[in-house]
Amino acid sequence: MAEFEIRDLQARIGEKPILQGVNLTIERGETHALMGPNGSGKSTLSNVIMGHPDYEVTGGDILFRGQSLLGLPTEERARLGVFLAFQYPVAVPGVSVARFLKTAVEAVRGKSAGGAGGFLKGVREQMKSLEMTEAFLDRGLNEGFSGGEKKRLEILQMRLLKPALAVLDETDSGLDIDALRIVAGGVNQLRGSDLTLLVITHYERLLKLIQPDHLHVLMEGRIVFSGGPEAVQELERRGYDWLREQAGEAVVAG
Amino acid sequence: MTQILPTDNKLVQDYKFGFVTPIDADAAPKGLNEDIIRLISSKKGEPDWMLAWRLEAFRHWQTLREPHWARATYPPIDYQDICYYSAPRQRASATGEMDPELAKTFERLGVPMHERAQLAGVAVDAVFDSVSVATTHREVLKKQGIIFCSMSEAIREHPELVRQYLGSVVPPGDNFYAALNSAVFTDGSFCFIPRGVRCPLELSTYFRINAIRTGQFERTLIVAEPESYVSYIEGCTAPARDENQLHAAVVELVALDDAQIKYSTVQNWYAGDAQGNGGIYNFVTKRGHCRGRRSRISWTQVEVGAAITWKYPSVILEGEESVGEFYSVAFTNNRMQADTGTKMIHRGARTRSTIVAKGISSGESSNTYRGIVRVLPRATGARNHTQCDSMLIGPQCSANTFPVIESFNASAITEHEATTSRISEEQLFYLRSRGIDEETATALIVHGFCKEVLKELPLEFAVEAVKLLELKLEHSVG
Ligand SMILES: Nc1ncnc2c1ncn2[C@@H]1O[C@H](COP(=O)(O)OP(=O)(O)OP(=O)(O)O)[C@@H](O)[C@H]1O
Ligand SMILES: [Mg+2]
User: What gap in Å lies between CA B17 and CA B279, rounded to an integer?
Assistant: First the structure.
């Protein structure tokens, strides 16, 4: 049984079909990259995996360790170990980062033995490794955060929640060169047989830092290419047009 | 960090304060006339001037009409069908302690009346129906010259102070309910902080309506002499009953030169059931007078109860450089109707005021902010900042804001910001994607929304207020 499997997934928002039969299988501990042009449905796929109420799944299935996620509310999916690092994390004004993190960690992992003090100590250590200052703890969640700060906070959450399956939706966008290295380092430390990863990005530079085992391209709601990681160079050079020309029929290489 | 309710907390009832205390009462017959007022006055052993004051207010009240400009609808109130006096018959105790049945009631309400069992820093006055039943920590306060007692006692023991200040902020004829209150008020708290004293305890009054068909008309008066400071807390609950009960209180605050009064309320009167049957009509006049220079009055209120709320805690900024503040959270659900806000009347030069009002409506409730900022000609350099935010939960509730700014001095600066939002799907989704269930997520978002106001409350009280809000939300979501 694969750790994570998407079978012929179809989803729409309102009347507009977006995912039109996505198939994707990831074995436990593997890292897969997902690329594709703007608007091809990458974030939609992430949201559907997490159970966003605005998207209606009209066909297919999403299996995590053999169990369908589709009937489960979002929070149940998170408690099973599914995590999404958002492309655009939203702000929740007035809710301190510290309080949010504690509520989330307790919801997913249960109350920590060390109490509030022990919890904060752990958080501070993780923040240090991501080179975040402690001042963030008292700030409103994502309130007035810069793009890069938001992305760091997403990875901080991932490190605290220790998911089994994580989808990173353009975590590299908005990060400066140093931050990219720090954040990628933060992700790589978690890699291993306990973490299955789907990394969505537009750029080769992230995949140099977080090296995937496989690469997929999503176009117009379908996976049109699946291959080895080396294909990223060809994509960088040629763009997506050559794949578009072969539209209709999925290309499988490597 | 404040604790959030566990997600499976279904044990908490809608309104856990809705019980009735089985206690004998000494009650006046229903109805309102001069004889009833004479009866109230004599029960309390009042001096003649007090009776005369009440009768004058009553005669004036008879010439007034019930106001109906608030955004609330309700059937006509029959003022002759209300009982205006009800006092629990306390069993006499040698030690002077409270009747055990009453003590039990306040215990259940979370207001322990035994001094040793209390929060270290809070002195409590407890008002049960029409009378004050106990005031704690009086000796400690007395040493500093602070007077904290029931209004009835103040009228008997400190008539000169009461005569000087009673009605000096809210005159008996101020409005329909204030006039009614002036005629029939039965008890309440009196606080006097002498010059230069910083009150070492939070002073607190807990109001409880118990008897059926009884109105509660309490009167509170707080006087802060020059350079003094006091923080005062008010809490209230009532049994769940099918009929409406009237609560028409008057609160007057007087701050002299460099004095500061912080007045905090958590109002949790019974709000009626989901269909809108029963609940308290909370028609209250609260006003502070910054009489002295650099004096400061702040009202902080968390309003989560009452079927109808009609309440505008206000500040008259008389003294130069005096400061008025109003921080409010008003939560409505089911069929509740709240029309609340404030008035800031700038009379003195360089007076400043701040208004932060947060309205949260859910169910089929209606939640209105109504405010006036008035800058009078002498108030050169006055400033006001107003922020009104409304949050809607669900499609059937409504929120309105009626902010009025009247400036008669060109040098004044007034700023107004207003927002209306719904709890956003994206915020909920984000929090839920981190394992947080919908109820807790909603509570977090609402708590964040109210934070600016909640942080103004004294700490233990803020924790209570947050719990109460979460409890109310639990029955409003999903
Ligand atoms: N709430 C929505 N309402 C209407 N259309 C939507 C909504 N969400 C997504 N879409 C549409 O669905 C399509 C896929 O969007 P999606 O965000 O999944 O693309 P993406 O591959 O993540 O793009 P990008 O690389 O720019 O992040 C787009 O055409 C987008 O406009
Ligand atoms: Mg996207």
Answer: 12
Interchain CB distance below 8 Å, B448 and A95? yes
B6 reaches A (C-beta below 8 A): no
CB of A171 closer than 6 angstroms to any ligand 1 atom: no
User: Would you call B451 and A94 a contact, using CB atoms and an 8 Å cutoff?
Assistant: yes
Number of helical H runs and strand E runs in chain B: 10, 23
User: Residues 6 or more apart from B382 whose CB is under 8 A from it?
Assistant: B317, B346, B349, B350, B351, B352, B353, B375, B409, B411, B412, B413
Q: Which domains does chain A have, with CATH numbers?
A: 4-92+160-244 (3.40.50.300)
Say if ligand 1 is within 6 A of residue A39 CB: yes
Q: What are phi and psi of B382, to 5 degrees?
A: -70, 150
**Residue B226, number of CB atoms within 10 A of its CB:** 16
**Which residues in chain B have Cβ-Cβ distances shorter than 8 Å to A50?**
429, 433
Mutate to test the interface with A, among B389, B432, B466 (most CBs of A within 10 A): B432
Tell me if B392 sits within 8 A of B361, measured CB to CB: yes
CA distances from A15 to A8, A12, A49, A220 (A): 19, 7, 19, 16
- With b for 16 or more beta-carbon neighbours within 10 A and e for fewer, the B293-332 pattern comes to bbbbbbbbbbbbbbbbbbbbbbbbbbbbbbbbbbbbbbbb
- Do A194 and A29 touch, CB atoms closer than 8 A? yes
* Residue B74 forms contact with A (CB below 8 Å): no
With a 6 Å cutoff on the Cβ, whether A43 touches ligand 1 is yes
Interchain CB contact of A167 with B (< 8 Å): no
Neighbours of A137 (CB within 10 A): 17
Residue in B358, B423, B425, B433 to test binding to A, most A beta-carbons within 10 Å: B433
pLDDT in tens, B397-436: 889 999 999 999 999 999 999 988 888 889 999 999 999 9
CA of A10 to the centre of ligand 1 (A): 14
Ligand nearest to the CA of A17: 1
Q: Does B424 touch chain A (CB under 8 A)?
A: yes
B254: Cα within 13 Å, side-chain hemisphere: 22
Q: Let me know if A239 is exposed, middle or buried by CB neighbors in 10 A (0-12, 13-18, 19+).
A: exposed
Give residue-wise pLDDT tens across range B210-243. Answer: 666 677 888 999 999 999 999 998 886 666 767 7
- B438 in contact with A, Cβ within 8 Å: yes
A109 vs A118: CA distance, rounded Å: 14
Written as tens digits, the pLDDT of chain A (254 aa) is 899 999 999 999 999 999 999 999 999 999 999 999 999 999 999 999 999 999 999 999 999 999 999 999 999 999 999 999 999 999 999 999 999 999 999 999 888 766 777 888 999 999 999 999 999 999 999 999 999 999 999 999 999 999 999 999 999 998 999 999 999 999 999 999 999 999 999 999 999 999 999 999 999 999 999 999 998 888 888 888 888 776 555 445 44
Instruction: Name residue B65's amino acid.
Output: R
DSSP B30: B
Convert the pLDDT of each residue in A72-101 to its tens digit: 999 999 999 999 999 999 999 999 999 999
Kindly report the pTM of this predicted structure: 0.84
Alpha helices by DSSP H, A39-176: 42-50, 74-80, 97-109, 115-129, 147-161
Q: Which residue has the tokens 């989808």?
A: A167
**Interval between CA B228 and ligand 1 midpoint (Å):** 61
